[in-house]
Amino acid sequence: MTVGQVEVSVEPVLPMLWQRHRQASLDRISLIEVTTANVIRSIFDREAITAAAGAAHKLAGSLGIFGFDAGSRAALEVEYLLREPELNVELLAEAVIALRSSVREEPLATLKAVDGATSGSAPADFCASVLVISTDVELISRLTVEAAAVGLSVVSSPRTSTLNIAATGRSAVIFDESLPGSWTRTDLLASIAAASNETAVVVLTEHDTFEDRAPYARAGASGIVARAQGPAQMISFLMESVRRKQSAPCVVLALNLNDVLEDVLERAFADFDVQLDVRSSGEELWDALEEQGADMVVVGYSGSELSGPDLCRVIRAHPHWHRLPVVIMGRRVRNQLDESFAAGANDYLSVGMSSHDLGVRLHHLACTWKLSEARGDTDPVAGTCNRSASEESLDRQFRTARNNGEPFALALVAIDHLEQIRATEGTAVGNAVLRRLGTRLLASFQGGDFVGRWAEDTFAVGLTGSSGVHASERIGDVLAALTSEGVATTSGEVVHYTFSAGIASAPVDGLNLASLKRTSETALGRASHPEHGIVVSGARPGQQRSDVVDVVLVDDDDAIADVIEHALELRRYSYLRFSDGAEAATALSQGGVAAKVILLDVGLPSLDGFGVLHVLRSEGVTDETRVIMLTARSSEGETLRAIGLGATEHITKPFSIPVLLARLDQMQAGAGA
Question: Which of 80, 90, 249, 260 lies at a 20 to 30 A Cα distance from 565?
């Protein structure tokens, strides 16, 4: 299904979302089975039977969305039988057996088992996959979601005894130290040592002490992370470990090499994964450096055009390449060695060294540079913190603001059409626009504020003590000044570029940083349209309130809510979710929250959907807001009751996400008219 030119589909992520909620669904089935077993033994606990019927009701709605159509039908039958005054034990047992059987077969082709492990699916272009050895369901599900956001797929396994890690082809393995009863410390260290020979290994440890870290590091772990850290930080560090472990060759640019020196270098690198690129002039080398980059430059001391120390000085004076390793090769002459180090060379090597010694030293230096780049906190192009450092800094800033009771705003600021700028004006101009934006943001937001690189074309700005509206004003001033100034192109012409920003604030848009990230990303997507520049989450032209959203979802089933929320994000709708009926009724009826459309479940804690709808109608909310009722039961009486209380439409679970989105699109268009 499409809206304009944007295709919207939740199909690719359904396997991942199912893995996140699979255990909760199985727990509900187990509850139903225990209750049914008691009924068969003539133990009639009405409270337990009511709870089992409620669990069946939830399953009837969620299983169908994930593709378990037979399971959804079986759950609906179980609910019906459990709510009967006289329980038919035989029919109930058959329905429960059918319910359990329905989830033993994977409904989606993309869900596969790997050596007994359960896996979340991943798009075909995922760059890597991670094996998580743990039994912590919550940890695995959160890692799966965070990993998907950066292009990693996750596979989990409760053991390593029958798992050939090398054969799985995983780019990384995460060992959960706290896995109960599965291994001794000796076995764990042996497994880490074996896996580290094939792939990157990260250990999640309960205790962040030197005594704990040393044995893991000695065994070959490339990352040791405290379990107390958030999944986002775990995945961010894991990405660095994966990049360090991947076998991409080191790129070495060379200049001032005669036939003898070139032969020496080729023999030195024969046993290493190194791509040697020899250039004949300083201009050629510089062009290659700008176009493809390098991990090291090797230059002969003497050259017809440029000496080794001179080239080193040029590199050290460049804002991007000033830390690039430079090795000068020459004869054992004291003044040449002194001049080379004075110019900033990392090493001066004699042309008379053995090939093996030369290769080991050069390869180690190049790999050290790559390692420092992967771990460096500073983005070399933008001059701000990189994504990994930004995640950590924003987390600290948000927690401090929350502990002090201060408001907090997160703004994502992007350059419009950066890829097109680079394609038409060149990479240098695109980088110049990035640096200009980063520099201006750093100068404008100091003190308690934070600025860091977030994505290829986006910066994150954390503003302590700012509401969404105040943050919008400050960001707007910066972007207006940048747009009016413009950037000079290679032809000397000054071109004016545009920028967009999406802003979310706490506590209005969420009570944790993850919610603010998601909401600000949604707002940024809406801001990228020509008629917008800056979008504060929930704000609309002509309205001053910052708590109006496109959709309010009221549903206590996390599995269904997860799928709907993902679909809303794909459609770039702003939204809020409530899982308690009374809380939703209070917020919507007393002006705390307003929405164009409300998606309202019937079976809710505290106050059911009909009770919520009654409150909304009595307070006049349904006069301006469209309400879609969601329920696993669709009797004529229930539908008429919902419509009589002010609902616009009644949709039966399990429902089609494209159909639901189509109805939302129509209602949103009607609400905006």
Answer: 80
Query: Do residue 193 and residue 85 come from a single domain?
Result: no
| H or E stretch at 347 | strand 347-350
Same domain, 537 and 599: no
Q: What is the CA radius of gyration of the chain?
A: 30
Calpha distance 173→133 (Å, rounded): 7
Q: Do 338 and 448 belong to one domain?
A: no
Q: What angle do CA 229, 556, 119 make, to 5 degrees?
A: 50
- The tokens describing 615, both together, are 């409150």
Domain that holds residue 284: 250-375
CA end-to-end span of the chain? 23
Could you report the per-residue pLDDT of 329-369, keeping only the tens digit for each?
Answer: 988 888 999 999 999 999 999 878 888 888 888 888 887 77
List beta partners, residue 226: 205
Helical residues (DSSP H) of 348-457, grouped into ranges? 355-375, 387-403, 418-425, 427-444
CATH of residue 639's domain is 3.40.50.2300
**286 and 321 in a common domain:** yes
- Per DSSP, the three-state class of 179 is coil
User: What length does the chain have?
Assistant: 673
Say how far apart CA 649 and CA 234 lie, in whole Å.
43
Phi, then psi, of 531 in degrees rounded to 5: -80, -5
Q: How far apart are CA 611 and CA 468, in angstroms?
A: 33
Q: Mark whether 397 and 504 lie in a shared domain.
A: yes
Domain count, the chain: 5
- With respect to residue 2, please indicate whether it lies within any of the assigned structural domains: no
Q: Provide the CA 391 distance to its chain's centre, in angstroms.
A: 11
How would you label 416-454 residue by residue, b for 16+ Cβ within 10 Å and e otherwise? bebeebbeebeeebbbbbbbbbbebbbeebeeebbbbbb
pTM of the model: 0.39
- CA-closest candidate to residue 229, choices 197, 202, 191, 192: 202
- Classify residue 457: in a domain, yes or no: yes
Q: In this structure, is residue 275 part of a structural domain?
A: yes
Question: Could you tell me if 521 and 570 are in contact, meaning their C-beta atoms sit under 8 angstroms apart?
Answer: no
* Residue 574 structure tokens: 């702003």
Do 438 and 571 belong to one domain?
Answer: no
Burial 19-30 (b: 16+ CB within 10 A, else e): bbbbebbeebbe
CB 40 within 8 A of CB 141: no
Residue carrying structure tokens 């609400």? 671
Instruction: Check whether residue 396 and residue 512 sit in a common domain.
Output: yes
Cα 36 to Cα 47, 84, 285, 509, distances in angstroms: 13, 14, 76, 43
Query: CA 664, 665, 670 angle in degrees (round to 5)?
Result: 95
Residue 328: pLDDT band (50, 70, 90) is very high
What pLDDT digit, counting tens, does each position of 200-244 carry?
788 888 877 788 788 888 888 878 888 777 676 677 677 666 666
Strands ordered across the beta sheet of 499-506: 450-455, 458-464, 408-415, 499-506, 534-536
Neighbours of 226 (CB within 10 A): 15
Does residue 198 share a domain with residue 57?
no
- Give the residue from 217, 245, 273 where a domain finishes: 245
Cα separation of 245 and 367, whole Å? 11
